[in-house]
User: Fold these one by one.
Assistant:
Number 1:
Amino acid sequence: MYNQKNITQTVSILVFCVGLLLGNIAVAQTEFFNSKIPFSENQLSNFYSSISIDSSQVYLNANDYKIYAYDKKTGALNWSYYVANKSNNAPKLYQDNVFIEKHISEYVDKCIQLNVKTGDTIQTLSIVSINTQPVFKGNIMYCTAIDTETGGIVLAYDLKKNAVIWKKFIAHGVDKQPYYLKDKIIANAEENNWFELNYSGKLLDTKCKHKATLFAEDIKCIRNFRHLIHNQKELSVSYFDIDEVLKLKYTKDKTIVLGENKMLIINNKNKIENEVKLEEIVPLTENRVSNYTEILKAEANTVWLIYLDTLVIYDLKKNKTVKTFDLIQWNVHQAILEDNNLWLISRNDGQLVKLELDNRY
């Protein structure tokens, strides 16, 4: 828990460029919470850490191999749990459950299900880890995971029976987020190869416009693309370099794609509605250290993104930056935006930090 002495620290913000030219308004934010976990130098030298958030708590998988559950409003530590593991793969949440990978012994890791209110163990699942964001239909969890016998898989898991219903081997495709649509799943089978199956695990494509030449013998037909946009059309590969890591967020009628040096707004016709050069939003300076780039939120006319230690609010309708927040002193590792609060992990010291932002613009 924290008190008034250590929660109130107003941070000065650097103005990056002339406001009249770029429309930027640099403002201050307040550090409202800091986890103050006593990490050892050895724990921080091998840095892995992640956060998740629900309606009442924020969950930190910290560098000391523990899960911490903090009250979002008061900052009180509700519980902690030693999992003997730390990861950039954030804890997965569903209703009153949190799923996290636990190191059991030298060659054994398992995914465990905890009660979010108490931190008590509900059960140990038969899979090693949940590698991407799952979806749930009642007691059934659909996700990609590591399985001890098979390796990387996409599967359906019955949480009530604590058993795998069906699974498909996808190897390194396990780390690509599937598309969970109303009547089908589109999952990755390594590189840009994707295949379709229904929620019963049955492969759907039998016409084989594109035949698979994959390790997975039972996957015969694939589609070849990098990403799908909001209306399930394939994102044109010509927009970005072939090896460029992309971050996507969707609105009702747009897809926002964040690349290494530009942000594109793609419309329903799969055309570029607007292209934003990131260096014009946040000029590169020598003291910028963080490589963390993410779209935190996308609304009808506004995008919130982090680039080069800077949180940017960008107006899509007016095509200009309306506000920036300097995050350089925290060297962001991961971040989640909720209302006017930014929860982040600082790569400087591994701490979980909550910033209260001035949202007015």
Number 2:
Amino acid sequence: MVTCYLNYVLDPYKLKEFEHYAKLWIPLVEKFGGQHHGYFLPSEGANNIALALFSFPSLAEYERYRQDSMKDPACIKAFQYAEETRCIISYERSFFRPVFGAAS
């Protein structure tokens, strides 16, 4: 399993737009076989940083999702929404291997 960690720098005056963008992507990631762990918007501290976490069974399946999302009409609309609203200033993507508690 691989978990994608996204660290966003946002326009702090467009948090409402980013929240809408986030809600668009959660079902889209799941549509392509991923498990979305949610978006985390600013609360206390920095007012322009948000995070997202989602997992795929393998890096190969994540890459397939990335390729397929570039052709999917709903994904294209979500990309366009972010571009039109300019709610995202920049983002960084990292990948992690999750470790969970011992099996019961």
Number 3:
Amino acid sequence: MTREHTVRSFDDVLRTVTDDLLRMGRLAHDQLVAATALFGQPVADTAPAILAADQQVDDLDQRIELEVSAIMAMRQPMATDLRALMSCDRIATDLERVADHAKNIAKRASIIAEQGQPIDFTGLRDLADSVRVQLEGILNAIEQGDAASAKTIWGQDEQIDARYEEVFNTHLQTMCQTPNSATSCTQVLFIAKSLERIGDHVTNIAEDLVYWITGRRLSKRETGDLT
């Protein structure tokens, strides 16, 4: 009877941590959507909204860190429970960095708008859409406890890298052909790199989620089932 009560209590506190993690993830996702919506738009004062969302993400990151520390100190979890808490803490760190990159993307998109140089955002939008879909997918996988979907997302990292290389090479060539566009194109390259880094963080989250659920660490050589 006591054991059942203890298990239920841990499940409750873990659900609280997971809910905070998902809330943090949705905020970071919304930041990314808002930032990439600025591509090709006139100058707009988005700083207050972006900074407010970023502060909420930072607050949730700190809250999760405190929650995990408190649970470990009070309950001294073992095995599966410890693995879940460690994974939550690591995922929160990656989500905080996703939000930071989204904030930087918004700032650089605003700089491009202020400079007024014509820029082709087609490749950058495609890259941003791919990264956004991955981020949304991993958040759904966390909510559903879906290791198989997490592994699929983890395996798509090379696709993001390939799209990043295309954007980089295209705008590097534009810089060489039209030197007066160099300043704006440089901002595009920084944005593309931020998007590529968000993809890396999503890959990290997918790997941690698989470990959380299955206890197995993914390897690039792995192609089989998770069971």
